[in-house]
Amino acid sequence: MQNTIKKQGLGSTKTIAKVGILSAIAYVLMFISVPLPIFPSFLKIDLSDIPAIFGGMSLGPIAGIAIVIIKNFLQGITASTTGGVGEFANVIIGGSYVLIICLFYRKWKNIKSVVAGGLVGIVAMTIMGCIMNYYIMMPLYATVYGMPLDAIIQMGTVINSKVTDLYTFVIWMIAPFNIIKAALMTVVTLPLFKKMEKILTK
Q1: pTM, 2 dp
Q2: To 5 degrees, how large is the angle CA 80–CA 57–CA 76?
Q3: Residuewise pLDDT in 10s, the chain (202 residues)
Q4: Buried b / exposed e along 95-127 (16+ C-beta atoms within 10 A)
Q5: How far is C-alpha 117 from the chain's CA centre?
Q6: Domain boundaries, the chain
Q7: Are 189 and 50 in contact (CB under 8 A)?
Q8: CATH for 2-29+45-201, among 3.40.980.10, 3.40.50.2000, 1.20.1250.10, 1.10.1760.20?
Q9: H/E/C letters for each residue in 170-184?
Q10: Is there a contact between 82 and 144 (Cβ–Cβ < 8 Å)?
Q11: Paired residues of 164 in beta bridges
């Protein structure tokens, strides 16, 4: 396992240990999630991708993605309430944000790169969230929960009358949710990344 991770570009045993610690922190943070009244109850805000962002900035983008995958894998086998659907979605959608902000920081390594990466990451996460939910995630949710897709869409209609079908559900529920979540991660990352970088690079 260790040799495999090294081949994928995570480097030394010390780096692997840091990835493991950050993955554990991210896993714990997944349990601290908050539903917002403007979205259906299964859409919850959490900051579990923040450790992956810090890990990706200090250890490289591959490390960041590894943390996203590991924490979702742990959640999936221990405490998933979505049959793995939510965890799969988080890897693809949240991972897109983590990868972009870490790539920007790796290129320029300054506060401007974090801001730029965060803004591009917000756009990427929103687009990825819309595409994934329209074509894959929402149909999977319906299958896992054993309910008609229309019943899930109705959960959005109750909140916003503009939601009438899957397309409008994605536009009025999924897109705003991902914008808010990605923006929140950017706001949290900005004041902390320098301190975390110093800690992780020691």
Answers
A1: 0.88
A2: 10
A3: 344 444 445 668 888 999 999 999 999 999 999 999 999 988 999 999 999 999 999 899 999 999 999 999 999 999 987 888 889 999 999 999 999 999 999 998 888 999 999 999 999 999 999 999 999 999 988 888 788 999 999 999 999 999 999 999 999 999 999 999 999 999 999 888 777 767 766 6
A4: bbbbbbbbbbbeeeeeeebbebbbbebbebbbe
A5: 15
A6: 2-29+45-201
A7: yes
A8: 1.10.1760.20
A9: HHHHHHHHHHHHHHH
A10: yes
A11: none
Q: Which two tokens mark 4?
A: 């495999």
Contacts of 15 by beta carbon, 8 Å cutoff, 6+ apart: 59, 63
DSSP H or E stretch at residue 35: strand 34-35
Q: Which residues of 141-159 are buried (b: 16+ CB within 10 A; e: fewer)?
A: bbeeeeeeeeebbebbbee
Q: Are 101 and 121 in contact (CB under 8 A)?
A: yes
